[in-house]
Write a structure and sequence with these properties.
By secondary structure, the chain is of the alpha+beta class. The protein has one domain: 60s Ribosomal Protein L30, Chain: A (2-Layer Sandwich). Helix content is about 30%, strand content about 30%. It has five helices and seven strands. It is globular.
Amino acid sequence: MANNFRIGLGYDIHAFTKGDHIIVGGVRIPYYKGISAHSDGDVLVHAICDSILGAAALGDIGTNFPNNDEKYRNISSLVLLKESVEKLATAGYIPVNIDCTLICEEPKISLHYNDIRKNISLHTGLDINAVSVKATTNESLGTIGRKEGIAAMSITLVTSNNIQSLV
């Protein structure tokens, strides 16, 4: 079976709450609000996990790492990312590239792109050039536009990790 590629799409959204920072792509970003979440609330990594798991039809982040399990309370989402890649490998796939977009009015994320890309690269085994991180606003529309929360989308391309199937 030549070129056994699959694509997964991920989306996540979290509400803001009281706090003094948010975590995006494993990077602590100073902000006058925090994230309401069971884990560290890293919306970008959650979307990436969903896209990785979805590419191999392994369910979603909530199924694999339920928010009613105390084991995952305040856990770094980068741990969940690494475990998602391990589940992907067990299913016979490896990631090829990840493209993700953060959707928020603030804070500004562009200053942190390189650190975020490094974290994602490190925890997925991808070369940093195979990790794309972007941000956009919601043009002041809806929940995101009113600065009530933050969202992210991700798409991941995976391929079979079986060398024989690539021949």
